Amino acid sequence: SAVISQKPSRDICQRGTSLTIQCQVDSQVTMMFWYRQQPGQSLTLIATANQGSEATYESGFVIDKFPISRPNLTFSTLTVSNMSPEDSSIYLCSVDGTGGYNEQFFGPGTRLTVL
Amino acid sequence: AQSVAQPEDQVNVAEGNPLTVKCTYSVSGNPYLFWYVQYPNRGLQFLLKYITGDNLVKGSYGFEAEFNKSQTSFHLKKPSALVSDSALYFCAVRDYGQNFVFGPGTRLSVLP
């Protein structure tokens, strides 16, 4: 299984500012995934990030609000832009196991609070 | 479209008793089903999966799940609950090559 780390683990930010979350994997992976978990809610996929191409965003999420970088096969960043209190959530990155049917492995998450 | 339902927001069980966390699903093709656990201030940890084969699958920490195609269910079970099993449990479904869809989660409380 992949080992995934995220930075920061948590942050408290002011309305209108931006925060960049980093995700590092201990092995090379083709796709990385970013999820949002709002308080008391399940996980919602924000986007899928492939190295060398634009991220693919799910319905309801846009690049201007959640720009993603994927500079190499072990690293990705998600920026939460122009934050509002509604952006307060846990943000998780994940990667696929090998094969087409496999589980995803998740990072520990970044707990974001926007005041 | 894929969907997952977890009909119970909360499950309470006494330590040492068997536990069941329920999950039903809807997919257009063959279901690939997963259970994850989330402890407080932690990411999701994979417990087990069903892809094909035996309907009863065994996973981490003594958990198992039973796939029932006719009832479109994939209930998580453990013969004897521990207080340390108290956490948030997510059922998920994935079609081949597609993204995960997670259920709403069930909070399990094991009482000493």
In short:
The complex is a heterodimer of chains A (115) and B (112). Chain A is mainly β.
Descriptive tags:
heterodimer; A: 115 residues; mainly beta; globular; B: 112 residues; 12 strands; 0% helix
List the helices and strands and how they pair.
The complex is a heterodimer of chains A (115) and B (112).
Chain A: E1 4-7, E2 10-13, E3 19-25, E4 31-37, E5 43-50, E6 56-57, E7 68-72, E8 75-80, E9 89-96, E10 104-106, E11 110-114
Parallel strand pairs in A: 2-11
Antiparallel strand pairs in A: 1-3, 3-8, 4-5, 4-9, 5-6, 7-8, 9-10, 9-11
Chain B: E1 3-5, E2 10-14, E3 19-21, E4 24-26, E5 32-38, E6 44-50, E7 56-58, E8 64-68, E9 73-78, E10 87-94, E11 100-102, E12 106-111
Parallel strand pairs in B: 2-12
Antiparallel strand pairs in B: 1-4, 3-9, 5-6, 5-10, 7-8, 8-9, 10-11, 10-12
Strand residue content of chain B:
over 45%
Low-confidence runs of chain A: none
Q: Radius of gyration of chain A from the CA trace? A: 13 Å
Shape of chain A: globular
State the distance separating the first and last CA atoms of chain B. Answer: 41 Å
- Provide the low-confidence segments of chain B as ranges: none
What average pLDDT do the residues of chain A reach?
93
* Helix proportion range of chain B: under 10%
Rg of chain B, Å, rounded:
13 Å
Content-based structural category of chain B: mainly beta
Query: How many H/I helical runs of chain A?
Result: 0
Number of helices of chain B: 0
Order of helices and strands of chain B: EEEEEEEEEEEE
The end-to-end distance of chain A, rounded to whole angstroms, is 36 Å
Task: Tell me the structural class of chain A.
Answer: mainly beta
Which percent bin holds the helix content of chain A? under 10%
Strand content of chain A: over 45%
Mean pLDDT of chain B: 92
Which sheet architecture does the biggest sheet of chain A show?
7 strands, mixed
